[in-house]
Amino acid sequence: MSSTPARRAEIVVDLAAIRHNVRRLRDLVSAATTPATMTVVKADAYGHGMVEVARAARAAGSDWLGVATLDEALALRASGDVGPLFAWLAVPGEEYQPVLAAGVEVAGYTVSQLDGIIAAGAEIGVQPRVHLKIDTGLSRGGAHLRDWAALCTHAAALERTGAVAITGVWSHFAASDEPEHPANDAQLGVFKEALEIAEAAGLTPQWRHICNSAGALLRPDAHFDMVRFGLASYGIDPAPGRRTDLGLIPAMTVRAKLAMVKEIDAGAGVSYGHTWIAPRATRVGLVPAGYGEGIPRAAGNRAEVWAAGARRPIRGVVCMDQFVIELGDGEADPGDEVELFGTGADGRVTAQDWADACGTISYEIVTRIGGRFTRVHVDSEDAQ
Ligand SMILES: *Cc1c(COP(=O)(O)O)cnc(C)c1O
Questions:
Q1: Pocket of ligand 1 (CB under 6 A)
Q2: Which residue in 210, 218, 220, 216 sits closest to 181, CA to CA?
Q3: What is the pLDDT confidence band of residue 383, given thresholds at 50, 70 and 90?
């Protein structure tokens, strides 16, 4: 990767890392059961590039791809993707015809939504393939248990006419990164009850799924027929510290060239509001990326970057286009590379470090990075 000269500021995504992670995750879950795997590529693949990541995931044997919105599903199809694809978030009035025509499987939360999906399918002569969602306790999307039997009965009656195929029943955990949290067992209990109700109504869903990355890695008893890997596919631990055997590789490296290096005097205030005052004369470097690129403003005085062979602190607040790091005794020239975060090799900084420093989660760090960064995809296996 270092053979590519750094642009002003760029996001480098290693597709070999994505393929490695997809394979590794399959191996990790297959130790217990052998669920199908879905790679979740919503939100531009958590900032990594949806189309490129989708191709890499398919190449590495991901059985399914998952996205949130119908638009995302259509964009994937437009890119040439043809495999099993699930989209779970739509609003009333959105047209289902295009996704149904494209063979996308969709989520059904309510009777009226299911009727809308079926009507759209009938209009174009396509039998919709629907995964009914039970809200097992996240209180987000999906049918409440009290409405579940009616939804299943309605769906089963329509399935018998051939108007729809109920291919899945699914749900989502609220605290899967905390395996001892009581919500997990409670949700699993509701899920099993919902599956029994569905079966009693005459439904025979092929795909029963409830696990995201953390659930899949920490709750093998909840694997069922499929697990949905988002964050872990990008090489980031979804439940830091819970397992030490993951062997994932962060796929995203964010780097920039130092725009300027200079000495400042003891007592000099740095960046807006002078929230950091140099306690002694020191050297600082100017990094040409800011909250316009999705660098959290909260990283000011908290996060570190890798420059001149060591971790260097951000001094003062992050501005729209730039921020300042303290190089101290570190030897660096204008134009030298700064790595904001990446694989973490050799003590370098990770997205998780940024999340910890900023009081957020790694998901938000990688997903929001963008703006004026140039994003490039590389394949470290090709380079070898
Ligand atoms: C985002 C999402 C996932 C992936 O979650 P990770 O924690 O990133 O693995 C899985 N399922 C649903 C419904 C989601 O919204």
A1: 40, 42, 88, 172, 212-214, 228-232, 238
A2: 218
A3: low
At 298-327, the pLDDT tens digits run: 999 999 999 999 999 999 999 999 999 999
Q: Strand ranges (DSSP E) for 90-222?
A: 105-108, 129-133, 165-170, 207-211
CA dist 45 and 230 (Å) reads: 8
pTM of the model: 0.96
> Would you say 73 and 125 are in contact if contact means Cβ atoms under 8 Å apart?
no
CATH number, domain 32-234: 3.20.20.10
Domain-wise residue ranges, the chain: 32-234, 252-378
CATH of domain 252-378: 2.40.37.10
Q: Is the pLDDT confidence value at 384 over 80?
A: no
Among 171, 228, 363, 367, say which to mutate for ligand 1: greatest number of ligand atoms within 8 Å of CB. 228
pLDDT higher than threshold 80 for residue 5: no
Mean pLDDT of the chain: 96
